[in-house]
Design goal:
The chain has 69 residues and is mostly helical. The chain has one helix spanning 17-41. The longest helix has 25 residues, at 17-41. It starts with 16 loop residues before the first helix and ends in a 28-residue tail after the last helix.
Length: 69
């Protein structure tokens, strides 16, 4: 299925209230499952990535053990 192709197309007839409700429930369940799958993939950083500038040393030697990460 391409991005320009519609997800659902009614070929013949029309939907009554019950069929429309069932279709809406199925589409909402698919949307929720897609959101949960995307949230499960997102990496979680266990620690903050920032440091306070006043607590950092202004210079480390290029051969320092602190630069080996």
């Amino acid at each position: 299925m391409s991005a320009s192709e519609p997800l659902v197309r009614i070929v013949r007839g029309s939907l009554n209230d019950e069929e429309l409700a069932a279709l809406t429930a199925v589409l909402m369940a698919r949307a929720v499952a897609a959101q949960q799958a995307a949230a499960a993939i997102a990496p979680v950083e266990p620690m903050a990535g920032w440091k306070r500038l006043e607590r950092r040393q202004p210079y480390w030697s290029p051969v320092s053990w602190q630069q080996a990460a």
